[in-house]
Amino acid sequence: MSPTLRLLLMAAILAAWEAAARLLHVPAYILPPPSAVAVGFYRGISSGLYAEHIWITMLETFLGFAFGAAAGFGLGTFVALSRRFEYYLYPIIVMFQSMPKVALAPLIIVWFGLDLTSKVINASLVCFFPLMVNTIAGLRAADEDRISLMRSLAASNAQIFWMLRLPGALPSIFAGLEIAMIFALIGAIVAEFVGAQAGLGMLIQSMNFSMDVAGQFSVLFILSLIGLTLNTVVAAVRKRVVFWDQPNQDARPGGKS
Amino acid sequence: MTTAEATRMREHIAVRRLTKRYGTDVTALEAIDLAVAEGELVAIVGPSGCGKSTLLRILAGLMPPTEGEAHLGGTSIDGPRRDIGVVFQTPVLFPWRTVLDNALLPVDVQKLGRERMRATAMDLLKLVGLQGFEHHLPNQLSGGMQQRAALVRALIHDPSVLLMDEPFGALDAMTREQMNLELQRIWMERQKTIVFVTHSVGEAVFLADRVIVMSPRPGRIVDTLDVEFPRPRPLSLMNTEAFGVHVSRIRQALNATGGLE
Questions:
Q1: Pair A135, A80: CB distance under 8 Å
Q2: Does residue B78 sit at the A interface (CB-CB below 8 Å)?
Q3: How many Å apart are CA A155 and CA A148, to the nearest integer?
Q4: Does B77 lie in the same domain as B20?
Q5: What is the pLDDT of residue A90?
Q6: Strands (E), chain B
Q7: Exposed, middle or buried by CB within 10 Å (0-12, 13-18, 19+), for A134?
Q8: Given a cut of 50, is residue B64 above it in pLDDT?
Q9: Is A144 part of the contact surface with chain B (CB cutoff 8 Å)?
Q10: Residue A231, min C-alpha distance to chain B (Å)
Q11: pLDDT at A253 over 70
Q12: Of A148, A149, A257, the CB nearest to B142
């Protein structure tokens, strides 16, 4: 595992792409060479054009994530803890989920308009389900012996929830949050495609109309950077919060069990 | 210990005609009569399926009996109580709590005042040889050390009764003997009433004042044996003839029930 090799591989792929685009005379509106993408990227950044759209899309993503995650966690908790709630509402939630949310985006735009609100709503609708499912699974997975222990101490149901079920569910909840974060970005972009006045999704659309393919590539590059950053942030928070559930556990003094 | 008769006068745990059925056709326990004196260490041995864990769960208030009654300190057991400490077969530690915080779990649940109990927890951790490991997480400890932490957790709120369900069953033989010695030491120091469920005959004879032998399906008490070796008992006791006599008598009782082949 060598980091140098990793970078060299990336450079080789870019070089091959550049060479192919130039030597085969591929038109720039089909596949621009990386150098053209880099120029487009630089122009977009230096003119301040991208910054504004990045800000809009990030804001939509974060707000959508916040609302969607809160709803997913809340509903998941109710479903996991209340049989009645599960019996009546879970089928409705699952039916709603099996509908492709992309197909819902045009309606959301009609209902909530072209600006921020509709994007936030779409992003939260797309991202709430994975978190809800993981919350349910995590809360239900509480170990029977641990529950017996809490009961033997005369713990209340609320204490069992806060001291046992919730911390026990955190690894699963964070796995859900990692997915939800990326889903929120997708939800925001999809809504921007359908109708928006700003944002990276809208930018891609307008570049598409003006045949600025290099520009589109540079926006795609920005989107993948944003996705990577969001994922890294959630993973870092997870590492702090779920400190006991790390992949490598060694250093056991006193021999094996 | 005074004589067995005298201590039995002061019944700490009293179980009368206790029966537990699951559904209509599985009888886990049938007509169990058992009295445990204050400060007595009673071991219950029996093959798997003799209902010994069920009996312990009823005493812990984790499930109700089908018939009969169980009393602790004169009051009926009708739910979990705060004067009981339970040790399970596995340590059942919470992985997100340090050893010290795991030991303080009953303090948190029963709101006994963390700051006040911290010193008690440190003393107990020292008593079981876990000093220096207070701030370790459970997954950094060996199985034996984890079970020691579980023992501290069972003792922290100073319950009068310890219910132990095959607590050392998952440990290797040497660690297990070490834990037996430590349990004896703690019991002598703290004067707890202990009900100790095990499937090891040797462990039962080594630890207990009295050994109760149970038969499987339905679980019944088939023999009771007083063990009157002086304390503290050394591990070498296990090699003596008298110890062997006790062990073989219990084995006979178990064989008679078809419990051991």
A1: yes
A2: no
A3: 10
A4: yes
A5: 85
A6: 11-22, 26-37, 41-45, 67-72, 75-76, 84-87, 161-165, 193-198, 210-215, 220-226
A7: buried
A8: yes
A9: no
A10: 24
A11: no
A12: A257
- Which domain, by its residues, includes B16? 4-83+160-256
Is B46 in the same domain as B79?
Answer: yes
What radius of gyration do chain A's Cα atoms show? 23
Q: Under an 8 A CB cutoff, do A153 and B90 touch?
A: no
In the predicted structure, residue B10 carries a pLDDT above the cut 80: no
Q: Are residues B182 and B54 in the same domain?
A: yes
Question: Do residue B146 and residue B18 come from a single domain?
Answer: no
Amino acid at A106: P
Can you give the pTM of this predicted structure?
0.82
Do B120 and B214 lie in one domain? The reply is no
Is the predicted pLDDT of residue A80 greater than 50, yes or no?
yes
| Cβ within 8 Å, pair B142-A253 | yes
Q: Give the domain-ending residue among B158, B175, B209.
A: B158
List the one residue out of B208, B202, B182 whose CA is nearest residue B251: B202
User: From CA A249, how far away is CA A240, in angstroms rounded?
Assistant: 15
Domain co-membership, B63 together with B182: yes
Same domain flag for B41 and B116: no
Facing B95 at nearest CB: one of A148, A244, A256:
A244
- Res B217: pLDDT: 77
Superfamily of domain A32-241 in the CATH hierarchy:
MetI-like (1.10.3720.10)
Enumerate residues 43 to 62 of chain B having a beta carbon within 8 A of any beta carbon in chain A: 57, 60-62
Q: Are B41 and B35 in contact (CB under 8 A)?
A: no
Distance CA B236, CA B243 (A): 10
Query: Do B24 and B95 lie in a common domain?
Result: no
CA distance B185 to B174: 17
Is the Cβ–Cβ distance between A32 and A213 less than 8 Å? yes
Cβ–Cβ below 8 Å for A143 and B105: no
DSSP state of B233: P
> What ipTM was assigned to the predicted interfaces of this complex?
0.85
- Mutation site, B54, B57, B139, interface A, largest A CB count within 10 A: B139
Could you tell me if B110 lies within 8 Å of chain A, comparing CB atoms? yes
Picking from A153, A165, A246 by the largest number of B CB atoms within 10 A of its own CB, the best residue to mutate is: A153
**Is A173 near chain B, with CB under 8 Å?**
no
- The first and second tokens of residue B260, run together, are 């051991």
**Which helix (H) or strand (E) segment is A6 a member of?**
helix A3-23
Q: Which of B63, B87, B89, B94 would best serve as a mutation to test chain A binding (most A beta carbons within 10 A)?
A: B94
Our CA-based measurement puts residue A174 at a distance from the nearest CA of chain B, in whole angstroms, of 15
Compute the count of residue pairs across chains A and B with CB atoms less than 8 Å apart.
80
